[in-house]
Amino acid sequence: MLKSINDFYLGIIFVAFVFVLTICASNDASNNSNNQYVANFESVDGIKVNTNIYMNGVEIGKVYSISLVDDFAKVSIVIDNTIKIPVDSTITVETNDLFSAKVLSILPGFEEEYMKDNDTFMMAQSSIDVLGLLNGYLDIKVKEKKDKKQE
């Protein structure tokens, strides 16, 4: 008999817990405090879903999704809707320091008109492939050395 009562109370607690979780989840989904924007890049090396987005050095959002559309990397981002982004702003792929992961950074423009939810950035700048430049430079130096030896 005691076991049945314990099971009954455990069942009530479980149902209440599931009910509270359902209420919390529906409140989070309906309380849309973020705007979503899109940027089209030639390359997004090092950028992943949940990559941080900064403006003036302050984290303001995250990368939501990345897909390939018409030979461009389409990056969807979410930013708190209290942040106003001028329509002439530029979004760039950057590194925080020499050894850290890549981030997206927004350089605010000067227009007094602001982007709206689901707008696309007019200007998106991919990162410079420093390793590729270095490899190209080294290839040239090796070729020059070979040419000198052949003379």
What would you note in describing this structure?
The chain is an alpha/beta fold and 151 residues long. It folds into 2 domains: 1-31; 34-128, no CATH class. Helices cover 33% and strands 32% of the residues. It has 2 helices and 7 strands; from the N terminus they run H-E-E-E-E-E-E-E-H. The protein has helices at 2-30, 130-150; strands at residues 34-41, 52-55, 58-69, 72-80, 90-95, 102-107, 123-125. It has a 7-stranded mixed β-sheet with strand order 1-4-3-2-6-5-7, with no helix packed on it. The longest helix has 29 residues, at 2-30. The protein is elongated. The model is unreliable at 26-31 (pLDDT under 50).
Keywords, separated by commas or semicolons:
151 residues; alpha/beta; 33% helix; 2 helices
DSSP summary, beta strand count: 7
| Shape label | elongated
Given as residue ranges, the uncertain stretches (5+ residues, pLDDT < 50) are 26-31
Strand order of the largest sheet: 1-4-3-2-6-5-7
What's a concise summary of this model?
By secondary structure, the chain is an alpha/beta fold.
Q: Which secondary structure elements does this structure contain, and how are they paired or packed?
A:
Blueprint (H helix, E strand, L loop, with lengths): L1 H29 L3 E8 L10 E4 L2 E12 L2 E9 L9 E6 L6 E6 L15 E3 L4 H21 L1
Parallel strand pairs: 2-6, 5-7
Antiparallel strand pairs: 1-4, 2-3, 3-4, 5-6
